[in-house]
Amino acid sequence: MEKKLARRRRLVLVPAPAQGHINPMMQLAKALHLKGFSITVAQTKFNYLNPSSDLSDFQFVTIPENLPVSDLKNLGPGRFLIKLAKECYVSFKELLGQLLVNEEIACVIYDEFMYFVEAAVEEFKLRNVILSTTSATAFVCRFVMCKLYAKDGLAQLKEEELVPELYPIRYKDLPSSVFASVECSVELFKNTCYKGTASSVIINTVRCLEISSFEWLQRELDIPVYPIGPLHMAVSAPRTSLLEENESCIEWLNKQKPSSVIYISLGSFTMMETKEVLEMASGLDSSNQHFLWVIRPGSVSGSEISEEELLKKMVTTDRGYIVKWAPQKQVLAHSAVRAFWSHCGWNSTLESLGEGVPMICRPFTTDQKGNARYLECVWKVGIQVEGKLERSAVEKAVKRLMVDEEGEEMKRRALSLKEKLKDSVLAQGSSHNSLDDFIKTL
C-alpha cells in the first residue's frame, strides 16, 4: 500500500500535430512532471517526437491510424483534423484500455483540436481536461463564429465593422481559414468548443492580457478556466522543434549593435507568393535596417526557382541574414533584436511579449488575425500591415518601429508587459497560482 501511494500519478497528454500546438503541450508536460506526475504522451505519426534528453522521463505511445502522410498537405489543416478525429477515436480508446491494464490514469489532457479524446475517455470515466494552445480571445471568437454562422451563415465575414461586445475584433478578424471553407471551419470549431465531460479548460495565456475574454468563457462554459501561461516562461522549454534550427544566426546577431535588428519569421505553415517576398525584400532594403529573415523551405509559391536561388537575388546587402529556420526564443531574447515581423501565431506572440519585443503584424489565417488586432489596438505594441503587400508599406512599417518615436513608445510598453508576464509565472504570480489550483483538482 505504501509503495502504491509513493508512485507518481500518471497523466496522458494528447498534442495536436502542428509545431504551434506541440510546443505548449510539451512545456505543460514538463511543468506537471516537475510537480510529481508521470507523463505519457499519445501522438500520431504526423507529430512524431523522438524522446530527447529533455523528454527522456516521458513515455511516448503512438495512436494507430491509417491516414496517408499526404493528407496533412492535401486536405489542409481543417479537413485533415476532422478526418484525423474520425480515424483516431476507436484506436485511441483501445490504446487507453491497454494503458489502464498496467496503471491508473489520473487525467487525460488533450489539445482542443484533438477533440475525439473527450468521447474516447468517457467510457472509462476518466477525468479529462482541454488544453487551449491559442489565446482566450481566440476561444471566444470560435464560439461567436459558430453562433453567427447558425444565425445568418456569416454573410458579413469580410466586413470592417466591430463584432458586438468583442472589441477590437472586426467580423473580418474572426478565425476563418484560408485553408478551408467557412462550413469546414465551423464544423471544426463546434467540436473544439464543445466541453462535453471535460472538468476544466487550461489556456496558455495570462489573465491580465485577456480579462474580458476570461470572464466571457467562465460564463459560457460554466467550468473552471485556468490561465497558466506563458508556459515557455514557466519552465525551461524542451527542444521540440520539428524543423532543424540554424544556430549560425545567433553568431551573426552577436556581431550586431544592440536593438538594431528586425527579426522576420512567418511561422511553420504560412505561404507567401514570390511577388510578396520580393516586395518585402525591396522594402527592407529601402529601410536601411538590419534584418534576420527566416524563409522556410517550401514556403514560397509561384516561383520557378528554388528558395536558395531566390534568396541570392533578394539579399544584395550585408545588412541581411537569411536562414531556413531559427531558434526563435534565443533570437527574441537577443539584445540585438529590436522588433519582430510576425504572422502573429499565439506562441510567437507570447514569446515576443515575453521578451519585450514589439511587433509588425502580418496575420495569415485563423486566430492570427485576432492576435494582431490585440497587439495593435489593446496592448499597443504592434503595427498591423493589411492589404496588398507593397515595398513602400514594408519600408514605412519597419521605420515606424525601428526609427520613429512611435517605435520607442511601443518598446517601452512591450518591456512593461514583459515584466507582467514574468511576474505571472513566479511564485504567487497569477499563472503560477492558477497552475497550482488546477493541480489540486487532479
TrEMBL record:
UniProt xrefs under Gene3D superfamilies: Glycogen Phosphorylase B (3.40.50.2000)
UniProt keyword list: Glycosyltransferase, Transferase
Superkingdom of origin: Eukaryota
InterPro entries: UDP_glucos_trans
Keyword Transferase: yes
GO molecular function, one term: quercetin 7-O-glucosyltransferase activity
Family: Belongs to the UDP-glycosyltransferase family.
The protein's name: UDP-glucoronosyl/UDP-glucosyl transferase family protein
Source organism: Arabidopsis lyrata subsp. lyrata (Lyre-leaved rock-cress)
Taxonomic lineage: Eukaryota, Viridiplantae, Streptophyta, Embryophyta, Tracheophyta
